[in-house]
Each structure stands twice: as structure tokens, then as C-alpha cells.
């Protein structure tokens, strides 16, 4: 997916973005695996959210359509976090809220930062080298509106 700016950072910053993408994918996949647990007895919506979250985390980890995948994953993380907070209630909650909130924060920042140089997006839409042939000086210029 082409980004608003055509800069895919490489070097230490690119490696940091790669590590953050893998970390977020692991956090989201672990949360989705807990959601898909048969002991949890999820309904159809729970299964759908879990499968889409796993798909978004895989796409985000490899950096393919990473901005869209991580934006979708952050929307699903907001829904999951809201379900944890308002579904059980703040006073009666037993599930920790801090890990999903951290995953949500990192996911949003990665969606805004972009994929980095070590991703499929950078391979597909990244830096290109354009070679312009040298202009011939000895040739006579063409005159498109010349009268005969």
C-alpha cells in the first residue's frame, strides 16, 4: 500500500520497526488465541474477531499492507479492550487491562509510522531508481510547429 510519503527507513530504525511489528503480532496473536480457546466457548462473533485479529497480526508482522492491517488490528484491539472494560465492569474485572492497552498503543504508533525498509511493502512500493538517459547535445532540436 503506497504511503503518504515514500520513505522506508533502513538501518537501526528499520530493524526497530521490524522488531516492533513482530512484538505486536505476537501480542495480538496471543490475545486472539485466548479468545479462540474452546474452554472460553466463544460465539461466532468471538471466532470472527479472533480469526481477523490473527490475519491482521500476520500481515502486520511480515509488513504486507501493514498500515491497513495494523489499523484494522488496532480497531479490533479497541473493541476487545472496550469489551473487557465495559463487559465485566471496572470494579469487577478479573482480566488485566494493561497488556491490551500497551498492544493497542504500539499498534497505533506502528500504523502511523509505516512498515520500514524490511517489509514486503518496501519491496513492492519502496525506493526506485529512475535512470534518465543523457541528452544529446549535437542533435538539432525538434520543432513541432514548423511551417513548410
Helix content: 55-70%
Radius of gyration: 23 Å
Structural class of the secondary elements? mainly alpha
Write the element-wise H/E pattern from the N-terminal end onward. HHHHH
The N- to C-terminal Cα distance equals 51 Å
How do the helices and strands line up, and which of them pair or pack?
Elements: H1 12-35, H2 44-62, H3 66-88, H4 98-113, H5 120-125
Summarize the structure.
The chain has helices at 12-35, 44-62, 66-88, 98-113, 120-125.
Structure characterization notes:
Helix content is 59%, strand content 0%. It is mainly α and 148 residues long. Helix 1 (12-35) packs antiparallel against helix 2 (44-62). The radius of gyration is 23 Å and the shape is elongated. It starts with 11 loop residues before the first helix and ends in a 23-residue tail after the last helix. The mean pLDDT is 78.
Features:
single chain, mainly alpha
Amino acid at each position: 500500500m503506497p504511503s503518504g510519503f515514500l520513505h522506508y527507513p533502513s538501518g537501526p530504525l528499520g530493524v526497530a520497526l521490524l522488531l516492533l511489528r513482530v512484538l505486536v503480532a505476537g501480542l495480538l496473536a496471543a490475545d486472539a488465541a485466548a479468545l479462540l480457546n474452546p474452554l472460553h466457548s466463544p460465539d461466532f462473533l468471538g471466532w470472527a474477531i479472533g480469526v481477523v485479529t490473527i490475519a491482521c497480526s500476520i500481515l502486520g508482522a511480515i509488513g504486507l499492507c501493514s498500515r491497513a492491517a495494523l489499523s484494522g488490528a488496532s480497531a479490533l484491539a479497541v473493541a476487545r479492550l472496550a469489551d473487557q472494560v465495559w463487559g465485566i465492569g471496572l470494579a469487577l474485572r478479573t482480566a488485566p487491562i494493561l497488556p491490551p492497552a500497551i498492544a493497542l498503543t504500539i499498534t497505533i504508533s506502528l500504523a502511523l509510522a509505516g512498515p520500514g525498509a524490511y517489509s514486503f511493502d518496501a519491496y513492492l512500493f519502496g525506493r526506485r531508481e529512475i535512470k534518465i538517459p543523457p541528452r544529446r547535445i549535437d542533435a538539432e532540436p525538434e520543432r513541432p510547429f514548423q511551417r513548410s
